[in-house]
Amino acid sequence: MIRGIYTSASGMILNQKLMDITANNVANVSTTGFKRDVAQVESFRNMLVYRIYDKVSSPDNAIGYMSLGSDVSRIVSDFSQGLYIKTDEPLNLAIRGNGFFTVEMPNNQGTQQILYTRNGAFTLNSRGELVTLDGFYVLGQNGRIVLQSGGQVRIDEQGNVYQNGRLVDRLRVVDFQDKQLLRKVGNNLFEADALSQPIPFSGKIIQGYLEGSNVNSVQEMVNMISVLRAYEANQKAFTIQDETLQKAVNEIARK
Amino acid sequence: MMRALYSAALGMKAQQTNVDIISNNLANVNTTAFKKDKAEFKDLLYETLSRADVVAGDGKPVSLQIGHGVTISAITKSFAEGNLERTENPLDLAIQGEGFFVVSTPNGPRYTRDGSFKVSNVEGQIKLVTSDGYPVLAEGDTEIVLPETAISSITIDETGRITYKDQEGQIQDSGLKIKIVRFINPQGLLAEGKNLYNVSAASGEPVSEEEMEGQKSRILQGFLEMSNVQVVDEMVKLIIAQRAYEINSKAIQTADDMLSMANNLKR
């Protein structure tokens, strides 16, 4: 009926999506290796509006361009560094610089799937294999990393794993040219598609530390306030248009 | 209705569990050989609103994914050694290293690092037991039984070998050695309370240190291992958890305000 009503509604729906993203960020404020999501907003495609009752149709009767709303165009992860948290656990690792640990997870087809994570909270399973806290295998250059019980584990900055002075394997830490092609799959894991080929890793591994979430609560708080206010403004615009419409329907026809 | 409500509610729930864990750590700040717990968080599944697809340079290069909150993925125990406290009591033992004592309970063997042992009197003989009365096992899974006179003169060396003085003041070798076992993944042990742990599929079977090569644990007589809880660390974690809880509750409030506005569209 009135274009503006739909425009305001699309603004409200957009702000709801932004709130969903913010809520997921604040929920993960304590998640190790979590990378916050940021939404990019774009307006709908512009449309050209014409006067329609002109006798001849010519380029002159174009009123101009207008857009009837906005939507989330992309949600990108902010891969900036999180805080380092000292834990002193020998199997807790953090990555300084870009890069991801490679993890092998069984999928429902019974095959192994390769995934990537920044969460370096690792442990050993009952066979002495290095695993994530969900039990997925952490990969080295030669596959799974098997350690023995007892004996100091030392992991150097390049990711070489030593036990009792003996080199066991080197962690498979990779980087990506375009990290925005990674997809979050939950469990602190990222999935790479065929387009994002791993490239060698140039950062450093730090043993005894974990990387905290990079969610900044002040930033998210500000986001929440601005989302709420934008939502409110859209709601006001909607209500006012509705009132105008009410006047048109109920009052103009009366006399 | 709104994902935001559920995501933030899950955030609050996870932080609540986190506070539960922190308060249990603080409650056990004086528990002998207590090992602190730590909550590990992970993000939940993502809903893909539109999938990335780059065909011939056109289309969306990035998928549109919104997450669904957070959950506690694991509670890990830190087996870092606690401080040693000198007690001068010959029946107090501390383990330096990764080992565990083995005690025999009515439900089968259990493992502990709490070495505050006592003796119980059995027909002129004394038996080494834990504070709860469970016998401590020696190599060969035998209970440790010594003559009554040994009570004040038990000596236990670093390897766990037990000697005592007999009535004539002669040092006698009891032939018993305290059993120390190790686990490939101690974090997989099940805490049962009373400072006892049970094996699980994740911890692996206990391996006696006697049969192992490499560095072994040392037993220190007259010492106890304190809890490895650091009050400062826990307080800091408590403050962070509280603030995280608070910001999640703010997110719920915001989402609720938005819903109320949506409901007020129609008056």
From TrEMBL, chain A:
What's the superkingdom here? Bacteria
* Record InterPro entries: Flag_bb_rod_N (IPR001444), Flagellar_basal_body_rod_CS (IPR019776), Flagellar_FlgE/F/G (IPR020013), Flg_bb/hook_C_dom (IPR010930), FlgE/F/G-like (IPR037925), LlgE_F_G-like_D1 (IPR053967)
* Domain spans labelled Flagellar hook protein FlgE/F/G-like D1: 94-162
Record keywords, A-Z: Bacterial flagellum, Cell projection, Cilium, Flagellum
The principal localisation class reads other
Annotated ranges, domain Flagellar basal body rod protein N-terminal: 5-35
Q: What are the residue boundaries of the Flagellar basal-body/hook protein C-terminal domain, all occurrences included?
A: 207-250
Pfam families reported in the protein's UniProt record = Flg_bb_rod, Flg_bbr_C, LlgE_F_G_D1
Localization per record: Bacterial flagellum basal body
The family assignment reads: Belongs to the flagella basal body rod proteins family.
Instruction: Fetch the PANTHER family from UniProt.
Output: FLAGELLAR BASAL-BODY ROD PROTEIN FLGG (PTHR30435:SF19), FLAGELLAR PROTEIN (PTHR30435)
Q: What is this protein called?
A: Flagellar basal body rod protein FlgG
Q: Which organism is it from?
A: Caldicellulosiruptor diazotrophicus
- What taxonomic classification does the UniProt entry list for its organism? Bacteria, Bacillati, Bacillota, Bacillota incertae sedis, Caldicellulosiruptorales
Automatic annotation (TrEMBL), chain B:
| Statement: the UniProt record of this protein carries the keyword Electron transport | no
Predominant localisation class: other
Annotated keywords: Bacterial flagellum, Cell projection, Cilium, Flagellum
Q: Where in the cell is it found?
A: Bacterial flagellum basal body
Residue stretches making up the Flagellar basal-body/hook protein C-terminal domain: 221-265
Domain Flagellar basal body rod protein N-terminal: from-to ranges: 5-35
**One GO term describing the cellular component:** bacterial-type flagellum basal body, distal rod
- Keyword Ligase attached: no
- Example GO biological process: bacterial-type flagellum-dependent swarming motility
- Annotated Flagellar hook protein FlgE/F/G-like D1 domain ranges read 94-164
Q: How does it assemble?
A: The basal body constitutes a major portion of the flagellar organelle and consists of four rings (L,P,S, and M) mounted on a central rod. The rod consists of about 26 subunits of FlgG in the distal portion, and FlgB, FlgC and FlgF are thought to build up the proximal portion of the rod with about 6 subunits each.
Q: Which family does it belong to?
A: Belongs to the flagella basal body rod proteins family.
The cross-references to NCBIfam families, in alphabetical order and at most eight, read:
FlgEFG_subfam (TIGR03506), flgF (TIGR02490), flgG_G_neg (TIGR02488)
The protein, known as: Flagellar basal-body rod protein FlgG
User: What is the source species?
Assistant: Caldicellulosiruptor obsidiansis (strain ATCC BAA-2073 / JCM 16842 / OB47)
